[in-house]
Amino acid sequence: MSGETGRELFSSRWWLVLATLGMAVGTGNIWRFPRVVAAHGGGSFLVAWVVFLLLWSVPLMMVEFSFGKRSRRGAVGAFARLAGKRSAWMGGWVALTACGIFFYYSVVAGWCLRYLGAAAIGELSVRSSEEVWNGFAGSGTAVLFHLLALGLAFSVVWFGVRGIERVAKVLIPLLVLLVVTMAVRAVTLPGAEAGLHFLFSPDWGALTEPHIWLEALTQNAWDTGAGWGLILTYAIYMRSREDVPLNAYLIGFGNNSMSLLAGIMVLCTVFAMDPGAEQHLAGVNNEGLTFLYMPRLFEHVPAGGFFMLLFFLALSFAALTSLISMLELATRVLRDFGFERRRALLWVAGAGFAFGVPSALSMPFFKNQDWVWGLGLIVSGLLFSVGARRFGLARLRSEVINGEGSDLEVGRWWSFVVGVLVPVQAVVLLAWWLWRAAGTEWRQWLNPFAEGNAGTVLVQWAVALLALLAANRWLARRSLASGLQASEEGD
Amino acid sequence: MQTIDWLMMALICGGVWGGFAVLLVRALLSEGRKRG
Lengths: 491, 36
Hints:
By secondary structure, chain A is an all-alpha fold. Chain A has helices spanning 13-24, 27-39, 43-71, 75-82, 88-120, 123-126, 129-136, 140-157, 160-187, 193-200, 210-223, 230-235, 245-273, 277-282, 286-298, 304-336, 341-361, 363-391, 393-401, 413-438, 454-470, 472-481. By secondary structure, chain B is mainly alpha-helical. Chain B contains 1 helix and no strands. Chain B starts with a helix and ends with a helix.
């Protein structure tokens, strides 16, 4: 506890930044970014990716930091308090979507730990990666590793902000060191230049294709953590004199710096070991790249066993630090409802285990949840924009973003981006993804039992939305009733 | 690698990593001022 206010707080700005960076840097940076950039024009895609860092991620991070710092409540309470009691359901949506992801993300973290173990005992040099994956994915062992990942995150959140801070201090610098070491090793492999060429070679014609921009926006929406409600949760524990805008820029650029390093690490290794990688990368998915393709390549790298161990260690660190933030988000929402921290955590972890089991046992179910709640994040981003409008964009900017502790003056452009551009981006992105899901199978498009179409998204969203709207008054009352860590800033 | 690839690499890496480094220095200076 800090002596400053008697509240639970991060003891320094740097631990807040490290913990938030740990939240933002997840498996998406390591297993999705290199694959997506390789499939969408290399250097040209990167230009669009940097543009959307500034037009989506950083402005939304400022909204999240402001909501957490000003309201001192979790997602539900923050919306109820700042956007009005009728907006509690919006915070509910943000929390529900983050939980939907948390349930299967724990399974992903379990996969990373399983492969870390396999790399550590040399199993991957004896058995092929396909053999290991096929014997593991969807089995009871996957459930055990889901439990292990959840248990590790649980043991950190049990100790509150102090636990999160201590782990961030160790894991994030180690993660950076691991990724830098592997990126340096990758670029010094014979033939690695082909990977750099593939990553940075510009195809200017690609910038005239709308899908390149939409993929770049999607990558920013999914891997920076902006609009998830996680930054809002950590911002509850920032000191009153802490800055908002510079921290948002730092985390946005820090996250994308890590993505770039991961891109160099993965693509240089891939092209050095497999000159025909372009074709292989086109058809591979996230799990395929990470758990099937990469282990095969490491076999041919000098001291490959050691570097494979480092790769899965980095992946596990990235997954666990993100999982910790998801666990804290849900715990914080329950605490606002009046639960004591450890009791709330027990409920959240229990639910996390139970709801994660179907994803651990069934890949189609896992992919369905990834599709439904991954898209739900774009709605969350939209709701943050709506919430900020309801509070007053100019007021949020002057009273919180440029308020006490601010290191940067944010201009009116921010109000335009959050009030106009973010909703436009969200609507276009949603329409595009749902349209794309149609493919050629229009009759299947609205089938609610399909794995990845519009029907399954709309039905699951509708159920969630109806429940949240029906419970809106209750959500507002419960999340505002508790005096827990009420804002001391006079709002 | 052609010249344009190197230029692109310098532009993107310089922009993202350089941007991060500049922001970090600014935050360090600001923290120093706040403590001083």
